[in-house]
Amino acid sequence: MQGADAVVAAYETALGRQLAAGSAARLRKQAVELLGAGRPVDWLCERAAEMPALGYQDLIRHADHPRHRLPGQTGSDRARPERDASMCWKPGHGSGAYPADDCSQCLAESRPRREGPAKINPADLVAQLRAGRAAVEARG
Ligand SMILES: [Zn+2]
């Protein structure tokens, strides 16, 4: 199938060298399968060209990844998953990995407020360090 050869060529172009015969045959076989399943050849070439940079070798797995929409798919049919309100969705808080009432990031953020200002006063600390060094210098 000519389309499959184009897909292999797209991969090799992105790779910057020719594939070993066995790898090329495997990729070509996957391309034939995907073309047979109705994937457009241009679209498959694009997917194949992405693979070397990603370190992927399996065209079927890469092409079937939900991230890739086939031409004509608007994405509206792929409703965004409902965010679980019981999880914390604040930016940088693990993208919903932590429960809202037990989020380590939220705890970390609320800690200074809850415990009041830091007990160590930076000015005092500097003064102590200076005094300590002065004492050492006086001794030496
Ligand atoms: Zn949080």
How is this structure best described in words?
This is DUF222 domain-containing protein. Residues 65-103 are annotated as: Disordered. The structure is a single chain. The protein has 140 residues and is mainly α. The chain folds into two domains: 2-63, no CATH class; 100-139. Helices cover 56% and strands 0% of the residues. Helix 1 packs across helix 2. The chain is elongated. Residues 75-79 have low confidence and may be disordered. Zinc ion is lined by residues 88, 90, 93, 103, 105-106.
Question: What's the SSE blueprint?
Answer:
Layout: H1 2-15, H2 21-36, H3 41-54, H4 59-63, H5 104-115, H6 122-139
This protein binds zinc ion.
Region (Disordered): 65-103
Protein name: DUF222 domain-containing protein
Organism: Streptomyces roseolus
Radius of gyration, taken over Cα atoms and rounded to an integer in Å: 29 Å
What is the makeup of the main sheet? Answer: none
How many domains, as an integer? 2
Distance between the termini: 87 Å
Count of DSSP H/I helices: 6
Oligomeric form: single chain
- Estimated structural class: mainly alpha
Average pLDDT metric: 83
Q: Give the SSE string.
A: HHHHHH
Structure summary, number of beta strands: 0
Low-confidence stretches: 75-79
Q: Please bin the fraction of helical residues.
A: 55-70%
Instruction: Give the distinct bound molecules.
Output: zinc ion
Estimate what percentage of residues fall within beta strands. Answer: under 5%
Shape: elongated
